[in-house]
Amino acid sequence: MTHTVSVEGLRFAYLRRGGARVEIDSLVFSSGVTVLVGPNGSGKSTLLKVLAGVLPVTHGTVSFDGEPLGSNGAGRHLRAPTAYLRQDFGLRGRTRVEEFLRYGAWMHGVPPSHLARRSEELLIEVGLAEVRATRVGRLSGGMQRRVGLGVELAHDPLLVLLDEPTSGLDHDAREQVHAVINRLVERGAIVVMSSHEEAEISRHDARVHVMRDGKIVTSRDHRGGDPVRMSDLLGEGPTP
Fold first, then answer.
1. What is the dihedral angle through the alpha carbons of 103, 56, 159, 64, rounded to the nearest 10 degrees?
2. First and final CA of the chain: distance in angstroms?
3. pTM above 0.70?
4. How far apart are CA 159 and CA 190, in angstroms?
5. CA distances from 137 to 76, 93, 142, 174 (A)
6. Is the distance from CB of 89 to CB of 99 less than 8 angstroms?
7. Which tens digit of pLDDT belongs to each residue from 192-208?
């Protein structure tokens, strides 16, 4: 089944001077991968937060499969199948990885009788089975972000929002993240991620939106495996 998220007449701006803003007249995200690119401060992270419900929709609408956010319970309908992993995700404390994933699954509404099985599935899915007994505060930054990804996938989300998901990860961890993205796409999920790395953008068949000053200034389709030049995407070089 194909799913869609539709954005209409969206306006958002931080109250503080100089804060990022978003102005989207009309935009549709469909099942598959969408990549947001643009210079720092262009609004990529802000748009992801609005889609995730972290920031309020004050002007315009965001709809999932035709149901507007916030009307007659549709807000729950949108948030329930949504995952959001922020760029600066990090963990502290002495909770073990397996316990953290189990708690995260419970927070996302996984029934208690399914928690043990689901946490085991998540350990395998994000490649952390070998460190299941490690305390989260002792993990590397890359592994901590994979724990965060595991928690966000616990409830089988249909809309997955990833802010620079592979930034700072080593090769094996990047491969694990891309494998997860491929599996999400296979089951019809909408994956929207921001990235500034050419090699990462080239990995998937994707719709690429270039953002500047909170607006989508150009869009193009990319075929996975084809090379990507960021200068071309951002209009800083010749268009192929």
1. 130
2. 34
3. yes
4. 5
5. 32, 5, 12, 21
6. no
7. 999 988 888 888 999 99
